[in-house]
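Weekly puzzle thread! Below is a chain. First person to post its structure in token form gets bragging rights.
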Amino acid sequence: MEEREISQAVISRLPRYFRYLGELRDEGVERISSQDLSSLMHVTASQIRQDFNNFGGFGQQGYGYNVSYLYDEIGKILGLDRKHNFVIIGAGNLGRALGNYMNFERRGFILRGMFDNDPEVIGRRVREINVMPMEELESFIEDNEIDIAVLTLPKAGARHVAERLAKTGIRAIWNFAHVDLNVPESIQVENVHLSDSLMKLSYNINRYMKEQGKT
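Winning reply:
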């Protein structure tokens, strides 16, 4: 497949396509048209075809899309045909919740370790994993071929930990700390600011109420 620059808007829709196609496959659906997929996902059929054409199209005129094949191909595009080892840094409520989320493993994301600097937390178990002290972070990443670090620690310590991670050869950071990180371009960063998402939801509620004349 020819590599081309793909917009972030298209990339952001791929996981949703993957999820819907997985559900269709599990229901025994063998093929689907862009129009039927549009009805399910509330994305226009034209947008679906444009998105898929970025990667070669996948469909046949008059036939539609082979659900299982398209599911597998989007999985490959998303890199889900290989395993990704990750660690969680910060074993508080959010870190433990993510550590207990089994669906990561079904997608090929394998939790290998958890770290914290709180003596009362170190040694506790999350599933089958003991929380380790931060002093062991760099050696663990190197010894276990860790691809991704998940930051669920307070804002104050996130930048310092990111600087440490940058020296380990880590490939990506999933950042839940409410702070922007300064890391080399070779490290991919996905920021997840939960309060920002909630404020966006609040805005949409407010806008809808105004449109309905309820304010």
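Puzzle host: Confirmed. Bonus trivia for everyone else. The chain has two domains: 8-77, 84-195.
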